[in-house]
Design goal:
By secondary structure, the chain is α/β, with parallel strands linked by helices. It is built from eight helices and seven strands, in the order ααααβαβαββαβαββ. It has a seven-stranded mixed beta sheet with strand order 3-2-1-4-5-7-6, sandwiched between helices. The chain has one domain: 3-Layer(aba) Sandwich (Rossmann fold).
């Protein structure tokens, strides 16, 4: 939890309590339904919560922004972002029902009011959002192709509507089709821990 406060020192008491509750909740649920590698659960705050919050270092979503987290798994990056932005609406989506169950139970346990959940494939989603966020669910060109139907044309944030995607590894090939408009940001420039070396945040405007 200290690592969250290190980079986000101005949290409200409610936010601190919600973040602090995540470890026990995920440890408990992960013992029943595996959404995080068992070897990695001890690194929950650094590898999952803080990593998710890299998006909050780049954009401060304005109130009433609509955000969809595609392939949320156990709730990343959607749940940490929903805690960080309580006036923003988040829709967490995954095609695996048991993962959505874990994310739903965690959110309910910490009293998150600004999230909803759907067990659905991205191809079936018809709703519109200002942004889609995602954590390494598929190659970037496939992801952009999948979500472009879901991006609203009305802009109200500092960044034009589009996709924020957390990825690792060599991305030059993936980002090539979007080279002119995309931004490739180094997560290690926000967070100094070794784990973030090589981790990237990709922004692609859509629409």
């Amino acid at each position: 939890m200290d690592i969250i406060l290190k980079y986000f020192p101005n949290l409200t008491e409610d936010q601190k309590n919600q973040f602090a509750a995540l470890y026990d909740l995920y440890t408990d649920w992960n013992s029943k339904i595996n959404v995080i590698s068992r070897k990695d659960i001890g690194n929950l705050y650094e590898h999952h919560v803080l990593h998710s919050l890299a998006i909050a270092k780049v954009i401060s979503f304005r109130p009433e922004t609509q955000v969809m987290d595609l392939g949320t798994g156990g709730g990343f990056p959607g749940i940490p972002l929903a805690i960080m932005f309580p006036e923003v609406s988040f829709h967490l989506v995954d095609s695996v029902g048991k993962k959505i169950k874990v994310a739903t139970e965690v959110a309910n346990s910490i009293g998150l009011k600004n999230v909803r959940f759907s067990h659905i494939r991205g191809e079936e989603l018809k709703e519109k959002y200002d942004f889609v966020v995602s954590r390494a669910v598929m190659p970037l060109p496939d992801l952009v192709k999948l979500v472009q139907k879901n991006i609203s044309k009305k802009h109200k944030n500092s960044y034009p509507n589009g996709l924020f995607c957390l990825k690792g590894g060599e991305l030059e090939h993936e980002i090539m089709p979007f080279k002119k408009e995309a931004e490739l940001l180094d997560v290690y420039s926000f967070f100094a821990e070794e784990y973030f070396k090589g981790k990237k945040l990709v922004y692609v405007p859509i629409g």
